[in-house]
Design a protein that fits this description.
- The protein is mainly alpha-helical.
- It has one domain.
- It has helices at about 5-15, 20-35, 40-55, 65-80; strands spanning about 5, 40, 80.
- The longest helix is centred in the last third of the chain and has 14 residues, at about 65-80.
- The chain is globular, with a radius of gyration of 14 Å.
Length: about 100
């Protein structure tokens, strides 16, 4: 069995005060401990970036770009990227979004 993580799980994992934080972190940790492949996609990262960098007043997390980048690097280090076939990429060079973009 393998699992594709939902973006909401990624978001809850970086919100220690959220009521579902422990559940999100625990579920992914258990899957990884059981050697279950846990995948993420570029779409997950785009959605995560959008919400993480959006101001709190606009229903985001209000994280800075460097903090968000650090969280994305953690995701990339823990989970496995499920590659998108080239015909579905948004640009010719595989770039999904500008890293200076805020949600």
């Amino acid at each position: 069995m393998s699992v594709l993580v939902d973006t909401n799980i990624l978001l809850r994992s970086v919100e220690p005060l959220h009521p579902q934080h422990a559940l999100a972190v625990g579920a992914v940790s258990q899957l990884l401990a059981e050697s279950t492949p846990v995948y993420f996609t570029l779409q997950n990262i785009a959605e995560f970036w959008n919400v993480a960098t959006r101001p709190i007043a606009n229903n985001g997390l209000g994280l800075s770009i460097p903090s968000t980048l650090g969280e994305v690097e953690k995701i990339e280090g823990l989970l496995t990227l499920l590659r998108t076939p080239p015909q579905f990429m948004l640009s010719g060079n595989g770039s999904l979004f500008n890293m200076a973009y805020r949600g």
